[in-house]
Amino acid sequence: MPPKTQPHGPYARHAMAYVLAGGRGSRLMELTDRRAKPAVYFGGKTRIIDFALSNALNSGIRRIAVATQYKAHSLISHLQRGWSFFRSERNESFDILPASQRVSEELWYLGTADAVYQNIDIIASYMPQYIVILAGDHVYKMDYEIMLCEHAESGADVTVGCIEVPRMEATAFGVMHVDDNDKIIEFHEKPKDPPAMPGHPDLALASMGIYVFDTKLLFEVLQEDAEDPNSSRDFGKDIIPKLVKKGTAHAHLFGRSALRSTPDAPSYWRDVGTLDAYFQANIDLTSITPDLDLYDHSWPIWTHSEMVAPAKFVHDMEGRRGEAISSLVSGDCIVSGARLSNSLLFTGVRVNSFTTIDRAVILPRVNVGRHARLKNVIVDRGVTIPEGLVVGEDPVLDAQRFRRTDAGVCLITQPMLDALK
């Protein structure tokens, strides 16, 4: 059955969402040894890419393409299983576009702009009026129809999605300097002294990696960029700065189109590209009212959902009671005489008796042996935690055995455990 979504306006039905999902995600360390960053698990059931895709679908966009490149098998498998409900007879399409050396037999995707340029003929076959370029590796809820409307009414060459950040934290982003009408007058890539927003000296506008173009103009710009031998073929480094200098670029503030958990909640956008950021964003979901609302049926996050049994908690005696406090527990999990707190369990996790787990993100199909004590950990998919393993109590020992961050979060993978034998 096709998903039911909110009513949408006139622009989304004439748009295509093009999701850039080829990133290595190297800052997530061993979590991306076997999968691209957009395919990393998040939130108990979903993958990171499901957020951008769901935003497009819920916004009313029915033509979607996903460009993949590095370690793409897990990602492509997920997309095939979870996003195959689009129907051509309803003027819908969902294309997976691996780097396949279509333009040159020697070149893979050379940058984000090249990942679009190499597939211009496929995009043109659908004749969308607008292209929404999206990053596939951020977690947020956003109505792209609002941004599309702004773009169409402004007449800009490009509209750039921007998020407000503390000014000195913007040094890691592309930063927009805008006038009072949100026209971008300067673009700075990772500036040491970011320009402030008009009227807000302590804030800066950072690029979210979301761009809206008229399709015809985008094709012209990409063709010109492809012929420039000095270009790095990147939207943030090449395309956007050129349009800021030679054309008209408009800034769209994320707060105007963000979906919030409550009317008073802050707009939520996370780059979960480091182990600490990934861990904290998942753990934040265990709070009573998290800023990211996964229970909002009006703006659901679509994904591939396995047909599994419900979660189960067994045993009820002192010291051996199956219980979970302030935790998210997915289907097919069995908590057998163990205690969880402030933790998130993905599908099919087994936690055996006399174990205590606190502040843990445990990916699918993990088996935790008896008498284990785990705190401040990320456990990769399919890992078998041996009986009696203690992590999170001795920083020196943890760092010798596992990947430990400066914030004290330990990533546990099967090869790390195998090396202990």
TrEMBL record:
<feature type="binding site">
    <location>
        <position position="109"/>
    </location>
    <ligand>
        <name>alpha-D-glucose 1-phosphate</name>
    </ligand>
</feature>
<dbReference type="InterPro" id="IPR023049">
    <property type="entry name" value="GlgC_bac"/>
</dbReference>
<feature type="domain" description="Glucose-1-phosphate adenylyltransferase/Bifunctional protein GlmU-like C-terminal hexapeptide">
    <location>
        <begin position="309"/>
        <end position="412"/>
    </location>
</feature>
<keyword id="KW-0808">Transferase</keyword>
<dbReference type="Pfam" id="PF24894">
    <property type="entry name" value="Hexapep_GlmU"/>
</dbReference>
<keyword id="KW-0548">Nucleotidyltransferase</keyword>
<comment type="function">
    <text>Involved in the biosynthesis of ADP-glucose, a building block required for the elongation reactions to produce glycogen. Catalyzes the reaction between ATP and alpha-D-glucose 1-phosphate (G1P) to produce pyrophosphate and ADP-Glc.</text>
</comment>
<feature type="site" description="Could play a key role in the communication between the regulatory and the substrate sites">
    <location>
        <position position="69"/>
    </location>
</feature>
<feature type="site" description="Could play a key role in the communication between the regulatory and the substrate sites">
    <location>
        <position position="108"/>
    </location>
</feature>
<comment type="subunit">
    <text>Homotetramer.</text>
</comment>
<dbReference type="InterPro" id="IPR029044">
    <property type="entry name" value="Nucleotide-diphossugar_trans"/>
</dbReference>
<dbReference type="GO" id="GO:0005978">
    <property type="term" value="P:glycogen biosynthetic process"/>
</dbReference>
<keyword id="KW-0321">Glycogen metabolism</keyword>
<dbReference type="InterPro" id="IPR005835">
    <property type="entry name" value="NTP_transferase_dom"/>
</dbReference>
<keyword id="KW-0547">Nucleotide-binding</keyword>
<protein>
    <recommendedName>
        <fullName>Glucose-1-phosphate adenylyltransferase</fullName>
        <ecNumber>2.7.7.27</ecNumber>
    </recommendedName>
</protein>
<dbReference type="Pfam" id="PF00483">
    <property type="entry name" value="NTP_transferase"/>
</dbReference>
<dbReference type="InterPro" id="IPR056818">
    <property type="entry name" value="GlmU/GlgC-like_hexapep"/>
</dbReference>
<feature type="domain" description="Nucleotidyl transferase">
    <location>
        <begin position="18"/>
        <end position="286"/>
    </location>
</feature>
<dbReference type="GO" id="GO:0005524">
    <property type="term" value="F:ATP binding"/>
</dbReference>
<dbReference type="InterPro" id="IPR011004">
    <property type="entry name" value="Trimer_LpxA-like_sf"/>
</dbReference>
<comment type="pathway">
    <text>Glycan biosynthesis; glycogen biosynthesis.</text>
</comment>
<dbReference type="InterPro" id="IPR005836">
    <property type="entry name" value="ADP_Glu_pyroP_CS"/>
</dbReference>
<dbReference type="InterPro" id="IPR011831">
    <property type="entry name" value="ADP-Glc_PPase"/>
</dbReference>
<dbReference type="GO" id="GO:0008878">
    <property type="term" value="F:glucose-1-phosphate adenylyltransferase activity"/>
</dbReference>
<feature type="binding site">
    <location>
        <begin position="189"/>
        <end position="190"/>
    </location>
    <ligand>
        <name>alpha-D-glucose 1-phosphate</name>
    </ligand>
</feature>
<keyword id="KW-0119">Carbohydrate metabolism</keyword>
<comment type="similarity">
    <text>Belongs to the bacterial/plant glucose-1-phosphate adenylyltransferase family.</text>
</comment>
<keyword id="KW-0320">Glycogen biosynthesis</keyword>
<keyword id="KW-0067">ATP-binding</keyword>
<feature type="binding site">
    <location>
        <position position="207"/>
    </location>
    <ligand>
        <name>alpha-D-glucose 1-phosphate</name>
    </ligand>
</feature>
<feature type="binding site">
    <location>
        <position position="174"/>
    </location>
    <ligand>
        <name>alpha-D-glucose 1-phosphate</name>
    </ligand>
</feature>
